[in-house]
Amino acid sequence: MSADGRVRPTKLKFKGEKTKKKRKREDGDEGSSSRRRRKEDDESPETWVLPEQATEIRGPTFIMHPSDPSPICVTYDSTRGRMILHSLDKDKQEGAAEPVSILDRTPTEVSQVWVTTRVAGSPTINLRTGTGEGKFLSCDKHGLVSADREARGPQEEWTPVVFPDGMVAFQNVYEKYLAVDEVAGGNLAMRGDSEEVGFAERFWVKIQSKYKREAHEEEKKKEGVMDEVSIDEASTNKIYQAWGAGRSITSVEDRKELKRAKKEGRLAEALLDRRAKLKSDRFC
After folding, report:
1. Which of 7, 121, 230, 258 is 20 to 30 A removed from 150 (C-alpha atoms)?
2. From the CA atom positions of the chain, what is the Rg in Å?
3. DSSP letters spanning 97-159
4. Where is this region: Disordered (predicted)?
């Protein structure tokens, strides 16, 4: 009972049961990155998400461009055996009240999906068609973009660059960028000879959630290995190399010890010489 005569509500508990302390969680208790990671863990592995780093771009990949008046996606027409730019507005369901945002778009056909594979030990990637016999997206030195090669080489390598807003640019082996260009008749086509990144060179890229997690796990493993293999630079330099053009640099204490050892060594040598001289004089 409280001082004012009111009965305090109490919770029944068994003898020996530990009392749990309540923890008041504040809004700023967790970082936005932690909340985002937890949200991604709760997502289905096949959920289409935006990459935050270039290393996350792998596996099934959906590439879009916010063209006007209709956003487009990079598609491979297996019937004609060539790459085309497909209008996403054609995929809108009839009777839809509001247009779907480009960031909410997901592939509706297998032909809209590319398979991204990474080159081991390199920041570059290969983009292969998800349908047909599997052709690689390539660009020659003249900036002509195609998807008709079954083997991959330098012209089939792309370096993705992720910008702070989440958009991605693709740089080829000639250090030029992939871009959407308007050709004769108002049609759109791909080219790969842009020197700078502007609106035409920036794409929205979506990958599946499980491949993004895979990239995070690999990054954690790398960080763990780096933490284990730690090198004491001072001791390593002292043991394996000499500084100052071959001269070992030592501390004041070390120099004192060296002087003392040399002095004791000289005294010992003098005593030995003295004894040898006395012995020789005795036998003469």
Report:
1. 121
2. 35
3. SSPPPGGG---SSGGGEEEEEEPTTSS-EEEEESSTT--EEEE-TT-BEEEEESS--GGG-BE
4. 1-51
Neighbours of 174 (CB within 10 A): 15
Spatial contact of 189 and 183, defined as CB atoms under 8 Å apart: yes
Question: Is the CB of residue 69 less than 8 Å from the CB of residue 127?
Answer: no
Other CB atoms within 10 A of residue 108 CB = 13
> Which residues, in sequence order, are CB contacts of 37 under 8 Å at separation 6+?
216
Q: What is the 3-state secondary structure (H, E, C) of 203-237?
A: EEEEEEHHHHHHHHHHHHHHHHHHHHCCCCHHHHH
User: To which H or E segment does residue 254 belong?
Assistant: helix 252-283
H or E stretch at 277: helix 252-283
Identity of the residue numbered 29? D
Closest of 116, 130, 219, 198 to residue 160, by C-alpha? 116
Which residues, listed in sequence order, are joined to residue 118 by a DSSP beta bridge? 125
Q: In whole angstroms, what is the distance from residue 201 CA to residue 167 CA?
A: 10
Strand order in the sheet with 159-162: 159-162, 168-171, 177-182, 188-194
How far apart are the C-alpha atoms of 130 and 62, rounded to whole Å?
A: 11
Flag whether the pTM goes above 0.85: no
Of 31-45, 103-117, 180-194, 215-229, the one with minimum mean pLDDT is 31-45
At a CB cut-off of 8 Å and minimum separation 6, what does 48 contact?
A: 62, 106, 107, 206, 207, 208, 209
| pLDDT tens readout for residues 135-173 | 999 999 999 999 999 999 999 999 999 999 999 999 999
